[in-house]
Structure formats: C-alpha cells, structure tokens
Write a sequence for this structure.
C-alpha cells in the first residue's frame, strides 16, 4: 500500500480537531453552594466509623500513638507479617525504609503499609493522603494490608469541606482512600481485596 488512504484519514482527523479548537465555549458560572443544605453531623466521629464500616473498613479509636502498634499486634496477620512499611514511625516503626528504595517493584512483597492520613470525611469514610508523605505512592495499593493513622480532630462532614482542606490542589499527587480494594463486576457479588489491599484498618489518634 502506498499510504495515501492513511494520509487522507489523518487529514480528516486534523480538520476535525482544528474545528473543535476554533470553537469558543463559554464556561457556565460556578454554582454557589448553599452551605445550610449540606450535611452536618452531630457526631462526625461516629458517622465516620459507620461510613467506613459500610465500605469494608474497620476503625479503632486509641488513646495514644503508641496504642496503634499494640492494637495492630492483636491482629494475627500483622503479628505474622515479615515486611512492614510505615510513614508514621511514631506509631509503627516498620522494617522497610521507603525512602531508601529506588525501585518501587521492591515493594511487591510488602505485607503491611502504615500510612499517615491528613484528614477524614464523615459522610463516606474517605481519608485524604498527601502524596508528599509517600516516597512511593504504590505502597498504598501493592501491600497486602493497609493501615491509616489520622487525627480524630481532623474529620470533616462532607466532601465540599474536604476539597477546601487540600493544600495546593492539582500541584502534586494525593488520593482519597475509602475502604479496602473491592469489586462487584462478577455476578454483582461484592468481593473485598480483589485488586489491592485485603483490609483497611483506620486508627483515630488524639
């Protein structure tokens, strides 16, 4: 083939793209929110605990940072863990230094990741994790089990408040985590831990 059909096809594609670029679209005005109609919970902590349970996570309220390691030690799969990565050393020391690893593939055999959450959302059980606290973002998704430590004073009611709390939005990596990995693609049966962490343990600290 001499390539002419492909050239014509490419020219048509470019013409369409040029026409799209030439169109001026007026953006709609930003909708002003009526704050009085947004969710407001009398007990955000209790609501967060309930929301997290609905999405498959488990919440623990502890009295000190040191109690995080004690409570994790009561979980058999944590006691048997060989490789633990932690970005919250005041709670769990860990034995995998994320900052010393150049290749994230080395995290393929990590049993637990213990991460720091910046704040949590009562209405859906989500926790915001700032990517600046994670040398390798894959640590959240490749480990067998995940634990997140967040202050109980850093719980907002809804996602509108949550987005306002994010520092420098769009300027770096960050992610909301809500419950363990899950899917319901097969026969509409919910399966936890299908393509990520098997369980999520959240610790609310002072």
């Amino acid at each position: 083939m001499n390539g002419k059909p492909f050239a014509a096809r490419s020219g048509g594609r470019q013409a369409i793209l040029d026409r799209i670029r030439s169109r001026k679209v007026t953006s709609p005005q930003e909708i002003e929110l009526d704050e009085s109609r947004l969710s407001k919970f009398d007990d955000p902590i209790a609501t967060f605990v309930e929301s997290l349970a609905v999405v498959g996570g488990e919440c623990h309220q502890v009295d000190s940072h040191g109690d995080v390691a004690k409570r994790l030690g009561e979980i058999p799969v944590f006691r048997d863990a060989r490789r633990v990565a932690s970005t919250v050393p005041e709670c769990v020391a860990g034995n995998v230094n994320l900052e010393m690893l150049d290749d994230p593939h080395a995290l393929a055999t990590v049993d637990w990741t213990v991460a720091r959450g910046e704040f949590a959302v009562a209405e859906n059980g989500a926790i915001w994790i700032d990517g600046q606290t994670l040398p390798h973002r894959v640590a959240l998704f490749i480990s067998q089990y995940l634990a997140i430590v967040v202050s109980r004073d850093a719980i907002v009611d809804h996602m509108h408040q949550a987005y306002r709390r994010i520092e420098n939005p769009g300027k770096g990596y960050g992610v909301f985590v809500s419950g363990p990995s899950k899917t319901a693609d097969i026969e509409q049966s919910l399966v936890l831990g299908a393509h990520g962490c098997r369980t999520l343990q959240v610790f609310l600290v002072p």
Remarks:
- The longest strand covers residues 145-151.
- Helices lie at 4-22, 44-54, 66-72, 76-79, 139-142, 159-165.
- The two ends are 71 Å apart (CA to CA).
